[in-house]
Amino acid sequence: MKVSHLGSRLCSPPTSDDHPISAHSATPDYAGLRLPAAVLLDNVRSMYNVGAFFRAADGVGLQKLCLCGITAHPPKKAISKTALGAEETVPWEHDWDVLRMADNLRRSGFTLAAIETGPQSTDLFDWQPQFPVCIAFGNEVEGLHPELLAMADAHVRIPMLGQKRSLNVATAGGVVLYELLRKYRALHV
């Protein structure tokens, strides 16, 4: 079963007019800028992490969130607690089948980038994304499905200089989304 949602109504896939950044909500350097990107969450367990993704997605003007498998979707109190209303403004879809969702995104013209910690992955700061892009984040413990990794056009890692090899998935999402916004803005300034 697949569900699409924007605010309190079901919707078709978003267009550039569905979520414009208004001049009063953005600094002048970003007014009218819309990030041609989507995030795919593959079996993310924590509803608080999902809510944090909604909040970051709103912050960067993301096109949509794609919630797959056991990833929770609104309306849920725990999502709302961290999303603080962003779950009502960011377009989202849910599908139990992550591979079907990824395939639909690719057919819609998105390239697919898997965010993972593997040594073969490109460093986030060296990565040159092709827009529109969908960035995929996996389960907090198991990561992305192997089949989804195989579908990816790019594998991207966040540099980790300390003892730990990964970040919390929502923290990683914020880091990647704002780097993606920086790269996209550089192309359009």
Secondary-structure map with pairings?
Elements: E1 2-5, E2 35-42, H1 47-60, E3 62-68, H2 77-83, E4 92-95, H3 98-107, E5 111-115, E6 122-123, E7 133-137, H4 146-151, E8 154-157, H5 169-187
Parallel strand pairs: 2-3, 2-7, 3-4, 5-7, 5-8, 6-8
Antiparallel strand pairs: 1-4
Key traits:
8-stranded mixed β-sheet; Alpha/beta knot; 5 helices; globular; 189 residues; alpha/beta; single chain
Describe the 3D structure.
The chain is α/β, with parallel strands linked by helices and 189 residues long. It has a single domain (31-187), classed as 3-Layer(aba) Sandwich (Alpha/beta knot), CATH 3.40.1280.10. It has helices at residues 47-60, 77-83, 98-107, 146-151, 169-187; strands at residues 2-5, 35-42, 62-68, 92-95, 111-115, 122-123, 133-137, 154-157. It has an eight-stranded mixed sheet with strand order 1-4-3-2-7-5-8-6, with helices on both faces. α1 (47-60) links the parallel β2 and β3 (62-68). α1 (47-60) packs parallel to α2 and α1 packs parallel to α5 (169-187). It is globular and about 35 Å long. The model is unreliable at 7-24 (pLDDT under 50).
How do you describe this structure in short?
By secondary structure, the chain is α/β, with parallel strands linked by helices. It is built from 5 helices and 8 strands; from the N terminus they run E-E-H-E-H-E-H-E-E-E-H-E-H. An 8-stranded mixed β-sheet has the order 1-4-3-2-7-5-8-6, sandwiched between helices.
